[in-house]
Amino acid sequence: MLAFLLVAAVSAGTTATLTYRKARTAILEQAQDTAVSSFRERVSDMATPLPIEPQSLQEQLRALARQGKPHPWVVFAEYGSIRVSSGTSPVSTVITPQLRRAALANPHGGFQRVEKHGEPWLTVAVPTVFRAGKTVRPTGLVLYAVMPLSDEEANVRSMVTAARDGALPGLAVAIIPALLAARSVLRPVRDLRKASQSMGRGRLDTRIQVKGGDELADLARTFNESAIALERSVGELRDAEARARRFASDVSHELRTPLAGMLAVTEVLDEDAARLAPDTAAAVRLISAETGKLAVLVEDLMEISRFDARAAELNTDEVDVAQTIRKTLTIRRWTDPDRIVTELPDGIRARLDPRRFDIVVANLVGNALRHGGAPVTVRLRKAPEAHGEGTRLVTEVADSGPGIRPEVLPHIFDRFYKADSARTRSEGSGLGLAITLENVRLHGGTIRAANGPQGGAVFTVEIPLTGGEATGGEVRK
Predict the structure, then answer these.
(1) Mean pLDDT for each consecutive 10-residue tract of the chain (477 residues)?
(2) Which CATH number is associated with domain 215-308?
(3) Measured in Å, how far apart are the chain's first and last C-alpha atoms?
(4) Does CATH place domain 317-476 in 3.40.630.30?
(5) Which residues form the HAMP domain (predicted)?
(6) What number does CATH give the domain 2-157?
(7) How far is it, in rounded angstroms, from Cα 211 to Cα 192?
(8) pTM, rounded to two decimals
(9) Cβ atoms of residues 61 and 85 within 8 Å
């Protein structure tokens, strides 16, 4: 709209300026030509006897002034040192030296438009001559007509006012086509913005109605084609992801039963390994260890598949959080004070799922012992919510290792992510931190991975203690 109105204003201004200049020139030239031709004609018809008699000359000048066109003149005469006029003053302040020189140099005289004190004036100079046949001689007497152009200037100002008053309604009327033009341009843009926002919210079936054949219509067609291709690609990816999850879930379930038998057999073989030959005993212990790792991997795959299928549920109970963490450490025999340092104040109670919170603490402490460095510190505290309403349970697990490399930090909770690309096998399943993240989210909390100011990795779990049921949390790195 601004561009449209600017074009309209520039067009109106340009037209008014050109019209003003043409009209002003025409008005002034018409008055000027009339006055010059009339004054020259009157001077040529006037007979002035020599020598000059000032009184007689003044009468002639007054008669000449009364015949002025298009307005009355004030006529001045200069002859040597004689100065006579038809008015009260014998000399004029608007007659310039340039005009006097032009009158003496040219037998036809000259004219000039002069502005004095803001008022426009027309001055005409005509020298009187002797005519004897074809001989023309100046007499030395020069007559000047001085005429105000205030009426013409008033007419010009009236034209400017009329042009201005006519341009303002024109600009107001221009708003209507500007609105129509803006609407025709902005409506498709708004539709495109709404469609983009809808796609950003996951509505991949969003399409734009195409109208017309201009560039905006081409843009809408391109958007629709891109949306169709994106929907197809995302659909294929979702199908592939669903098939992969079903495959992992099915394989986990199928492996669970034979693994249970294998674990039972390996336990028996472990008990008798001491009575076997050394090579046989080493093979038995290797099979037992690898079977145990496979069982952990299968259990983790089944756990993560339950999260993917949204089948995981919370079975909460009010517990003493410090005692729950101590129980987790005791069961796994992480009680050596040289390896584990605890800061667990008693009396902090919360509604948690004890099994899932046990998995969270065990995974974080186990990860710190495997990949960090001893001692590992486990801290517990309560903190106010960021918005000031309610409190949150904060659990920190910090190790004394080298910390997490910056390029690894964004992927620390990804499934099967390996910080060392050269390492083909890991001691765990590669799903521990991913399962930890899902369990924290199930409690409506957040988990954050960072490096401590003194070095070492720090994992911080925050779970709300008040504010309603858990609805899902987030991960921050």
Answers:
(1) 74 74 75 82 76 82 82 85 86 87 80 83 84 71 86 76 70 74 75 85 84 81 88 84 72 73 80 80 84 79 78 88 95 93 93 94 92 91 79 94 90 78 54 90 93 91 69 46
(2) 1.10.287
(3) 47
(4) no
(5) 183-235
(6) 3.30.450
(7) 13
(8) 0.50
(9) yes
